[in-house]
Amino acid sequence: MIRVVLPAHLRTLARVDGEVQLEVTSPVTQRAILDALEAQYPVLRGTVRDHGTLKRRAFVRFFACEQDLSHNSPDAPLPEAVAAGDEPFLIVGAMAGG
Asked: What digits encode the pLDDT tens for the residues 28-83?
């Protein structure tokens, strides 16, 4: 099982508490996790990725194993610790401004 940590506003929207656990087949990639997340929680479609392009929204970041994976290819394999369920995949709302 893949562990996913959502920001508070997406947890509220999906009506979940704490981490979300998803069944994701190999290879474990950002795309595979987000596909599984949107399939299990359809209300989240369009919140993390654009509906049409499926690209990450500008103010959403992805982290795992203390690494910023936001600009990695969505089809690049994620660290083994994420695939094994030892470390969570974090979806974080970014902030901008001054």
From this structure: 999 999 999 999 999 999 999 998 999 999 899 999 999 999 999 999 999 999 99
pTM above 0.90, yes or no: yes
What whole-number distance in Å separates Cα of residue 27 and Cα of residue 80? 10
Check whether domain 2-93 has CATH 3.10.20.30, yes or no: yes
Helices (H), 47-88: 80-83
Nearest to residue 88, comparing CAs of 11, 20, 15? Answer: 20
Contact of 64 with 78, CB cutoff 8 Å: yes
CB 75 within 8 A of CB 29: yes
